[in-house]
UniProtKB/TrEMBL annotation:
Membership in a protein family: Belongs to the universal ribosomal protein uL14 family.
Lineage start: Eukaryota, Metazoa, Spiralia, Lophotrochozoa, Mollusca
Cited Pfam families: Ribosomal_L14 (PF00238)
Keyword Ribosomal protein appears in the UniProt entry: yes
A Gene Ontology biological process term: translation
MF-aspect GO terms: large ribosomal subunit rRNA binding; structural constituent of ribosome
Protein name per its UniProtKB record: Large ribosomal subunit protein uL14
Length: 109
């Protein structure tokens, strides 16, 4: 898992947020002295650090859509992105705004 609590990541949608701050990760029960961390596809609780004033200083759910740490697929290919990014969602997990920023993916065999 790539993004521990306290990480600041890019916001990849057109809500007006620039950065998301990871507060907590959904579904992590925890282990003594281990930081809860999120990976691609995980839902987490976030606040907006840079962006529109109406989005800042509010706690909202978000989902990780890109991570720098390589992830191994079943066919042996490692896939990773050039940055860490997330999108703001509602409680059901549906995106608040639908346009995503450009995605650049790299693979390694």
């Amino acid at each position: 898992l790539a993004l521990p609590v306290g990480a600041v990541i890019n916001c990849a949608d057109n809500t007006g947020a620039k950065n998301l701050y990871v507060i907590a990760v959904h579904g992590i029960k925890g282990r003594l002295n281990r930081m809860p961390a999120a990976g691609a596809g995980d839902m987490f609780v976030a606040t907006v650090k840079k962006g529109k004033p109406e989005l800042r200083k509010k706690v909202m759910p978000a989902v990780v859509v890109r991570q720098r740490k390589p992830v191994r697929r079943k066919d042996g290919v490692f896939i990773y992105f050039e940055d860490n990014a997330g999108v703001i969602v509602n409680v059901k997990g549906e995106m608040k705004e639908f346009r995503q920023a450009f995605i650049n993916c790299k693979t390694n065999k």
